[in-house]
Structures are given as C-alpha cells and as structure tokens.
C-alpha cells in the first residue's frame, strides 16, 4: 500500500526537494567520478579503470552492498535496502543504470561518463530521501547496475541473459544529447561483418590468375546502395570497407566490410537482414570469392516507450527549469540505437535525453570536450534530480506503478501482434541464405 493520498502532495514535494538537496551535497564527488571516467576512455568490455572507480565510489558510500564483478568482468551491482514496509511484503526494486564505455579514437564523444554520473546521482538522491522516511509504508530497494559495452557488443543484453535484471520493477537512465527530450525514437539495429576471400596475383603481369576480393567488396557496397531505393523509408543500412587490400599491384586476396542494419521495430530486422545477406552473397558469386557473413551475437531492440514514465519525467523536469524540445523533426525522426532497448522489453523504464550546454554533435571530438567540461555538470545533475523525483512518483503516487506496469504489458503485446502480422504479410519469417556463416 502507498501512503495516504491526502498526505502525499506536500510530503512528496518535500521528498523531491530532499532528493535534489542530496544530489547537490554530493556534486563535487560526482563530478570527480565523471571526470575520472572521461579522462581514461576505455572500449567495450575493457572498462577496467572506470569500473573500478565506480565500484570504489559506491563502496565508500554508506549503506551500499557492492558486487564488483557482477555477471560480466567490467559490470557491477550496488544495492541499498530493502527498507520500509513489513517483513514479507513485496519489494519494489528501483534501478539506475550506469554506462561508461568510450569510442575508439575520440574517447567519451557520446558522454557515457555523464550517463554513469546521472545513474549514480539519481540513486544517491533517491536513497537520501528513503533513509529519512521513518514509517515508509512500502518495502523498497534501490539497485545500481554498471552496464559495460553499449557502444559495441551489447553488455546489457549479456546481463539480461545472465539474469541481472530479474526482480527489478522499473529502471532509469538518461543520455546526453543536443536537446532535452523525455523520449526519442531509438531504433532496432543489427551489425554484420562480411569477409571476402580471393586469390592474390600480380595485378599487371598476370591478373587472370587472381580472384579479386576487392571487386566483391565494391559490388556488395554497390548492391546495398541500389537496395536502399527498395527499402521502407525508415529503414537504414550503412557501412564501411574496413580492409580493401595491401598494395595496388597485388590483386586483393582479402577484404572486409562492416555494416549496421536498422529498422524502427525489432520485428523488421529479419527482413532487412535477409535482403542485405543476398547482396553480400551475390557479390561473392559474381567474383568467385568465398564469403563469410557474420552477424553480431546480439541485436539491439527499439525502445518500448512508456508514456506514463515519460510524462512524469517531463513534469518533474519542467519543475526544475528544463525546457523540453518541441521540434517535431527531432521528436519523430529515428535516432541511434541502444541496448537499453532490449532492457525495455523485460522491464518498464525510461531513457530520456538531456542537453549538456553544447550544440556539438555526438560522436565528434567537440562532444568529447563538452562531455568533460564543468559546464555540463549543471545539466547533468538537474537530469539526475528529475529521474530521482520520477522514481518517487512511481513509489508513492497511488496507482502510478500499476499504470507503468500495465502500459509496459500492453506495449509488449502490441509489438508481438505486429511481429506476427508482419510474418503473415511476408508469408513466413525471412531466413538468411545458406552458406559458410550462420546468424549468431
């Protein structure tokens, strides 16, 4: 049961103010945490220093139980509670997620140091309120998960499969951007590596003795370029030739491409995979090369939106002075992809975007600088406060958690109905072509 509705408005506003005060009280150590992560950018599954710094941060905070290598080597879990209610009552487990991997070459150009800070700050703010409520009517637990490898590999998906999210009721995180938005349409994505094997030969003296793997790569690239005109308008495929040969006078015996395939909904990924794979394999047939088509072990799902959480976050953010974008182009255009999408299929959650004081674009050197600047701190901590306030609404506003759960269940059912409908339209679920490499 929740606290009496008649006592909630004033109490809840007091608790929200207290959450913000707790975050402000910790602002110096939160900035030091963020700056440390920013200063030592580490790639997916190799975030050892950032991981250790976060583990130390929560170990040094009073009351947290920390599991330093939780499910993955560079993941962790910090828990506080449960408190309140009575022994035997159901526990409401509120989660905050921290990301901390960087990009190759340009460091924290996506601001994952700030994502880690927001997760830590939001958790501290919520804990700071809960430990002051002497007669809390419900049993509550706060969990922080350190989730590595968002940029490459899908650490959250590994953790889902390992059971890391079991028992959690709602989950919060926020992502740096150029504007504030409670929701942006992150899309489903699957990446694929394609390797062509030919035969080397002297390119001038006896080219007829060679099998040109670069020709296969170029044909595949052009096949995909032509395919784009036959794709749905909101589907995307884009990629690079990672290896194109070693010397102009040697027929390339090996080439390698990497492509990302994106669709607004995960149910459409099989169709775009099938079309792309035919492009890759036909290029091998045309040139006489052998081909390996290696799909990544995980696909990223689109985010299942929870408008109840979005609305609460927006209301709390506006109370803190956040001006949310009203640009419909921004709000309706597909953005990037994130493994938080997979989390949103197993637990209701929210993944808002927040302005950090710069119009620099993500995945640029300018954004790396902005993510490490002191100027970003005001916006980062304001976002953490809005998340903590939203968590308090979920816990203490009558009926809110039930609405969040009901919307989550309906969104999953709707997506499943859409998947079955798409399979029916296509006759059967598209399957990849046979050959050297299967999907994995």
TrEMBL record:
<dbReference type="InterPro" id="IPR017439">
    <property type="entry name" value="Amidohydrolase"/>
</dbReference>
<feature type="compositionally biased region" description="Basic and acidic residues">
    <location>
        <begin position="414"/>
        <end position="429"/>
    </location>
</feature>
<dbReference type="Pfam" id="PF01546">
    <property type="entry name" value="Peptidase_M20"/>
</dbReference>
<dbReference type="Pfam" id="PF07687">
    <property type="entry name" value="M20_dimer"/>
</dbReference>
<dbReference type="InterPro" id="IPR011650">
    <property type="entry name" value="Peptidase_M20_dimer"/>
</dbReference>
<dbReference type="InterPro" id="IPR017144">
    <property type="entry name" value="Xaa-Arg_dipeptidase"/>
</dbReference>
<feature type="domain" description="Peptidase M20 dimerisation">
    <location>
        <begin position="192"/>
        <end position="281"/>
    </location>
</feature>
<dbReference type="InterPro" id="IPR052030">
    <property type="entry name" value="Peptidase_M20/M20A_hydrolases"/>
</dbReference>
<dbReference type="InterPro" id="IPR036264">
    <property type="entry name" value="Bact_exopeptidase_dim_dom"/>
</dbReference>
<comment type="similarity">
    <text>Belongs to the peptidase M20A family.</text>
</comment>
<dbReference type="GO" id="GO:0016805">
    <property type="term" value="F:dipeptidase activity"/>
</dbReference>
<protein>
    <recommendedName>
        <fullName>Peptidase M20 domain-containing protein 2</fullName>
    </recommendedName>
</protein>
<dbReference type="InterPro" id="IPR002933">
    <property type="entry name" value="Peptidase_M20"/>
</dbReference>
<feature type="region of interest" description="Disordered">
    <location>
        <begin position="414"/>
        <end position="440"/>
    </location>
</feature>
